[in-house]
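Q: What would this chain look like folded?
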Amino acid sequence: MSTTKVFLIISLFFLSGCTLFGRPSNYQTDYGATRTQLPKDTKAFNDDFEHVWATVIMALGDLPLDKISKEKGIIKTGWAEGYSQTRKARSVVTDRFLNDYWKERYRLTVTISGNIMGSSVKVSCQLQQKPRGGSAAYRWQRVKSTGEIEEEVLRRIEELLVEG
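A: My prediction, written as structure tokens:
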């Protein structure tokens, strides 16, 4: 093979660059800019920071607010307790008579960032459960969140922003 052919092949490779290999599937291009898709627990809004901040506080409703820092854009709630709708302490037969569900509690951390043009809200949930009886009933066990609580809070924020 002649040196001219080798030189042409190498220069063709460098001229074509990385376009031969394609783009990752999670990126989109908008007029030359690349961005990633938002995760499920984050939502962007076309409202200013002040309006979104007030709406988030209204959306949290009766949840006890533990820490609020408007400068950092963080709201942390206290624990909200109830009963798990997914885990039962006993069998199906005893549930017919005792309605025996595990205890459940959660707390939220809401992070709001933005400016006068738009804002984004991220909701994270810490979830814990404990059974009704036995030695395990004295301690809370951390459970991975299914994302339902986060989606519900974001849906409520969106509803309030559309209404007002």
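The radius of gyration is 25 Å.
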